[in-house]
Amino acid sequence: MTDLDGTIVRTDGTVSARTDAAFDRVRDAGIPIVGATGRGPRLTGMSRGDLPSADYFVLGGGGRVLDLTGDEPRVLRDLRFPGRALAELMPQLEAEFGPLQLTVEALDAENAPLWSEWEQWPYPDPIELRTREEMFAVSIIKGFLQVAPELGARLTAEARHPDVEIIQAWPGFVEIHAPGVDKATGLTVVTDLLGIDPADVLVFGDQLNDVASFAWAGHRVAVANAHPTLLGMADEVTAANDADGVAEYLERLFS
Prior knowledge:
Elements: H1 17-28, E1 34-36, H2 44-50, E2 56-59, E3 64-67, E4 74-78, E5 81-82, H3 83-97, E6 102-105, E7 114-116, E8 127-129, H4 132-136, E9 139-140, E10 142-146, H5 149-158, E11 165-170, E12 173-177, H6 183-194, E13 202-205, H7 211-216, E14 219-223, H8 228-233, E15 236-238, H9 245-253
Parallel strand pairs: 1-2, 7-8, 13-14, 14-15
Antiparallel strand pairs: 2-3, 3-4, 5-9, 6-7, 6-10, 10-12, 11-12
């Protein structure tokens, strides 16, 4: 299993031909390949383009799981949470942590816009300004709060709501998921389907939203640019994403 952004995707947004070739070699050996990313279903095409050899995809940090082994993608998991949970959660969070700006992923059509209270989004995703009332009225794939890194750590450690899972995806970003959603539970959908023990899974990652999959998998490899938490959990460290560290590791493994 591999994460995408910051792990096989380089800083310039590309994936090298070397990395593609390394994963082709894994696939040709008959080993299932799973891409696991925080990118939501609306970025399925982009994700498949970055890891074309993948047999399965875990999207949205675990909420959507796709089987790509047939003629058409098959949805194995699609978990969302009601917007009304945010209607209850946001006043609680703001009473404790001060004003927050909410962005949500509510649509899963290819390249669909995120809904947000503001336009300051650090990635080239389309943004559609919406009120909180509009967000609260629909089912949510994932919510986002952009906060200072130290506040994100406090918020995820202290905030609780029975209808959502709150995680720090990476410093400065807090994500809100359906209960029980993380990369590990998404990957479990795949391993249960294939009859694979998580102890036999090799996982690559770089950020805090990979903590669950690192805790779950039998062998953990962090890229050199990974968050210190991931580096501390890793069994091995390979070169950074910009140096094709995952490809380098796989080349050694298959040499």
